[in-house]
Amino acid sequence: MTTLWYRVQPIGLVRRPGVEVPDSEAFYDPQVETALDILPRWEAALEGIEEYSHLLVIVWLDRVTRARKPRVFAPEGRSDLPEVGLFATRTPRRPNPLGVSTPRLLRREGPTLWVNGIDAWPDTPIIDVKGYAPRDDLHPDATVPDWLSRLWTLHDAER
Questions:
Q1: Is the per-residue pLDDT at 27 higher than 90?
Q2: Is the pLDDT of residue 28 over 90?
Q3: Which CATH number fits domain 12-158: 2.40.30.70, 2.60.120.560, 3.30.420.40, 2.60.40.10?
Q4: What residue spans define the domains of the chain?
Q5: How far is CA 45 from the centre of its chain?
Q6: Cα(90)–Cα(82) distance, rounded to whole angstroms?
Q7: Which residues of 69-159 form beta strands (DSSP E)?
Q8: CA distance linking residue 101 with residue 141, whole number of Å
Q9: Residue 58 CB burial class (10 angstroms; 0-12, 13-18, ≥19)
Q10: Which of 16, 81, 106, 138 keeps 20 to 30 A from 52, CA to CA?
Q11: Are the CB atoms for 136 and 152 separated by under 8 Å?
Q12: Which residues pair with 114 in a beta bridge?
């Protein structure tokens, strides 16, 4: 297999109102209203996006250390969960640190999309935005591993 390199360019940045200096160690609540500031040159490409209730947002996790070799680990370092490969998790430490979220679109103000439900740090580069289409994106028959269901239960209890 030939190794190819691809270039991507950000189309905007994530902004979290009230956050002056982003802290990569801080927890940023995904449910807090967040701005997706799209570069002015791409504003026309947003035309019609406000008709969607949710978006598919792809970001470049620019502050994480990339995975350089295959890893197997217990998710979140919890010894009560089985060890799995990084592709079986949502760890940000990946060969290509792409993040994917499906936030609710609250409103559009020019080149700014106001959302909640995005898991991204302030100033995270936005690579792409698409309208979320249930016919294509929703899979009611989808299943997840038992360990993930248990992890979600633990997260719900921690909230």
A1: no
A2: no
A3: 2.40.30.70
A4: 12-158
A5: 21
A6: 15
A7: 72-73, 84-85, 98-101, 104-109, 112-116, 125-131
A8: 20
A9: middle
A10: 16
A11: no
A12: 35, 107
DSSP for 48-94 reads: TGGG-SBEEEEEE-TTSPPP-S--EE-GGG-TTS--EEGGGS--S-S
Instruction: Name which of 77, 74, 76, 100 is nearest 85 in CA terms.
Output: 74
Residues sharing a CB contact under 8 Å with residue 52, sequence separation 6 or more, in sequence order? 105, 131, 132
For residue 18, the model assigns a pLDDT of 83
Decide if 112 contacts 11 (C-beta within 8 A): no
Tokens matching residue 92 = 């940000």
- Say which DSSP state 96 is in: S
Backbone φ and ψ for 97, nearest 5 degrees, come out as -75, 75
- 3-state class (DSSP) for residue 33: coil
